[in-house]
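hiii, so i know i said id send this last week but things got crazy w the move. better late than never?? heres the sequnce for the chain we talked about at the cafe, plus the structure i predicted for it. fair warning i was half asleep when i ran it
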Amino acid sequence: MSLSFTINRINELQQVAAKIAELTTNYSHFCFDAPMGAGKTTLIKSICEQLGVIDNISSPTYAIVNEYQTKREKPIYHFDLYRLNDEIELLDIGIEDILDSNAICFFEWPEKILNFLPSDYVKVSIDVKNEVREIAVTVLKVEE
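okay and structure toks below
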């Protein structure tokens, strides 16, 4: 399954966020692949709003992970793995328990988590050219 979107203005992001939010009924892990400043956190914030997050949504750059609560009291985890030095740090923050919980997880800089993903996941790629964002959403299978 693959979807693609062209975003010219920030207000168009809501339709992308709504489509990705729909995928959370079948998938728990979402990997956001994009260069610095491409809008990963902004898109994740829009998705969280679609999912009814009641907490303040912000970049977990320094905390590495933020946990948000929804109106249904189901947690969502938002990871920014940019500053992560090695996989041991993931184990230290309890990544295995989080992944096994089937909670929705959004990963920025996902290349650092791929070895831990236990199931299929959704890759969200953002490419920026001249202020236009091309967003590709693809379901990928974890190799057994």
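btw Residues 2-140 form a domain with the Rossmann fold fold (CATH 3.40.50.300). thought thatd interest u
miss u guys!!
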